[in-house]
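Appendix B, example 12.
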Amino acid sequence: MTHPGLDRARVRDATLRLALPLARRVGDSHLIDDPELLAAFGKDESHVPPATPDLVLKAQSEAHVIAALQLAAEYGVPVVPRGAGTGKSGGAIPIVGGLVLDTTALNQVLDVDRHNLLAVVQPGLITGDFQAHLEGLGLFYPPDPNSLETCTLGGNAAHNAGGPRAFKYGVTRNYVMATRTALMGGDVLATGTRTIKRAAGYDLTSLLVGSEGTLGVFTELTLRLVVQPTHLSTLLICMGDEPAAGRAIAQIIAAGLVPRVLEFMDGTLVQVLREEGVSAIAPGTGALILAEIDGTSETQVEADTLELAERCEDAGALQVLMARHGAEREQLWAARRLLSEAIKSRGKYKVSEDIVVPRAAADELLQGLRALNEKHSALVAAYGHAGDGNFHVNILWDDPDYRPDAVVDDVFALVWSLRGTITGEHGVGLSKKAYLPKEQSAPLIDAQRRIKHALDPLGLLNPAKIFAP
């Protein structure tokens, strides 16, 4: 059957015809077609408008995933894979309708190999639950997106999620050793190996990680683990202004220190936190740095903590607060955890973009963002993972008729001028696909389209994402 394209009526008709044979394969109880219930599967955490699917399958097994992809190919029905719906780029929104394939019931830890430091998991497992499970075994899975209490490991892999600990430990792609991935039509690829090194054939595992559900649907992930760090210290550093914070961060990196967390909050956000009653902020603070050092040697962690504090003091720190115990660390982390919700108080409407620039360009980025505050009738504020140059730029405004497109255009133009990229961990999805041709060349995009066509020749898997028509 030919691809139904973006014709919504044709997609709906094809999906209705798919429903009966799919029910025979997976059982009626796992399908949702009630319009009121379907609405919940048409949105995510992005600012992209929702779109209601025609049918939802809450898959209970790999066999269910295979059945859905086989029949959807036969009937020409678009399929949108979905985890917990915590994405920020509209990647799980069924913009053309069709079938949403919900994998959250596939949520088991299938194996933990302590000798080889790896685990085999299903894609619907909540990231925070997996980390807690490992902690009881003395093991550690470092990727820690901010939504770790609700997001799934499959969604993390689909978007190559990062988080505050990425500076030291890397992002999700660094931990996915192997996958079982179902393709449109029902074939299953077993990619990767359980070995640390591999050089046989193309690295399809790395290709699938970060492909945003447009190439295949994960049914199993083999993840690399590390030994749980036994010692940890946290520092909250109050700097007089943003340039001083930039100097401190540069000195930390130049000294060869690799904290597992090196977070930055700009002057606007410092004021927001003051208004929220955060008491740990010293008078005169114009920027904050949150740093965390871990390791298996108490002596080394202590030495690195003191050196990091000294580097910040050399750069003009107003105050350095240190914590080594759980309750104390949580107090210092409170400022960072408050940000996402607290900043909403500065505007009725908000758009958040995650951008990345070379670390040495961070100060230029912040100067440019301050200039945009003066240029536009919207508030522009930034925080993020300064250690790897990944900043979350928040655009806030009150006027319901205001459109932030011009601000976003200027933010991305600034990022490109600094040789950066428009997304570090949220993905392209729907929200950024119009900007991809401004960052990547036509031949590069064409090569990616050919890869998509090779694995999904009907173009039915998560259509209309990443690449503009």
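The chain has four domains: 8-105, 109-227, 231-342, 347-417. The CA atoms of residues 30 and 101 lie 11 Å apart.
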